[in-house]
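Milestone 3.1: sequence recovery, worked example.
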């Protein structure tokens, strides 16, 4: 800790840069009530004596957060190709041929 003089001329202790940075990282959880116990007391005491951190707790900067990714729609399944029609056509022709042959054979045998 370093010594500094407050506005009343009294000496007070301040937190060094690396320690201050560590405290600043915990300000968001402190301001939302996510810390308790000794950590809360440490942060509360620091915020009471540090104008910059007090301002951060009172008016937090907007948090940056990644924009949600847009989920692309599922690709539509390709339409299945129509089944070949030639088996149906050939089957129909075969049935027609059998009918014609049967009718012709029956007519001739009378």
């Amino acid at each position: 800790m370093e010594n500094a003089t407050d506005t009343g001329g009294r000496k007070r202790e301040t937190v060094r840069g690396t320690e201050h940075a560590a405290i600043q990282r915990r300000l968001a959880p402190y301001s939302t009530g996510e810390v308790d116990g000794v950590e809360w007391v440490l942060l509360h005491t620091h915020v009471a004596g540090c104008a910059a951190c007090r301002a951060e707790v009172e008016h937090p900067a907007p948090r940056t957060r990644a924009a949600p990714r847009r989920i692309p729609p599922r690709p539509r399944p390709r339409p299945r190709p129509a089944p070949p029609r030639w088996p149906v056509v050939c089957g129909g022709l075969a049935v027609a041929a059998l009918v014609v042959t049967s009718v012709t054979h029956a007519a001739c045998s009378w």
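The chain has a mean pLDDT of 77. The longest strand covers residues 2-5.
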